[in-house]
Specification:
Blueprint (H helix, E strand, L loop, with lengths): L6 E5 L5 H13 L4 E5 L6 H9 L8 E6 L5 H8 L4 E5 L8 H8 L8 E2 L5 H13 L3 H16 L1
Parallel strand pairs: 1-2, 1-3, 3-4, 4-5
Helix pairs in contact: 1-5, 2-3, 5-6
Length: about 150
């Protein structure tokens, strides 16, 4: 039986999948179980609400949310869950992702969202593993090993 997911990856569009596959690959490398869902904060607000509001009770511990342009997905998810939310601003054709980045970092007081670089899916996965590692030694050790390998490269 597969281990229950601890990280939820949510993205606003199927077009975000190629970038977010980097997040999934990095989580796999670190041994972190995850689930993936595509749901737009604007086109499918009910789906996003239900998914985010039940994330903790389903066993998730961290959420990684990717979106472009208005990029409200991470903030909407953060409004509905007590879990830490890591935002991945997606590169856009209009403003190169700066629009996404600024939308994600300008959260109102009381609704924090951590944010990585534009298309920073791999770093989002590492940050999620670091958060998990504060309470689970196997993930802390996986991150320590990753950092050791990077230092030797």
């Amino acid at each position: 039986m597969a281990e229950a997911p601890l990280v939820g990856i949510v993205m606003g569009s199927k077009s975000d999948m190629p970038v977010m596959e980097e997040c999934a690959r990095q989580l796999e490398e670190l041994g972190v179980p995850y689930e993936t869902v595509v749901a737009s904060a604007h086109r499918q607000p009910g789906v996003v609400h239900e998914w985010a509001a039940t994330a903790a009770e389903r066993g998730l511990r961290v959420v990684v949310a990717a979106a472009g342009k208005a990029a409200h997905l991470a903030g909407v998810v953060a409004a509905y869950t007590p879990l830490p939310v890591i935002a991945v601003p997606m590169k856009t054709s209009d403003l190169g992702g700066l629009d996404s980045l600024l939308s994600m970092v300008q959260m109102p007081s009381g609704v924090p969202v951590a944010c990585v670089a534009i298309n920073g899916a791999k770093n989002a996965a590492i940050l999620a593993a670091q958060i998990l590692g504060t309470g689970d030694e196997r993930f802390r050790k996986a991150v320590e090993e990753l950092k050791r390998r990077m230092a030797e490269a």
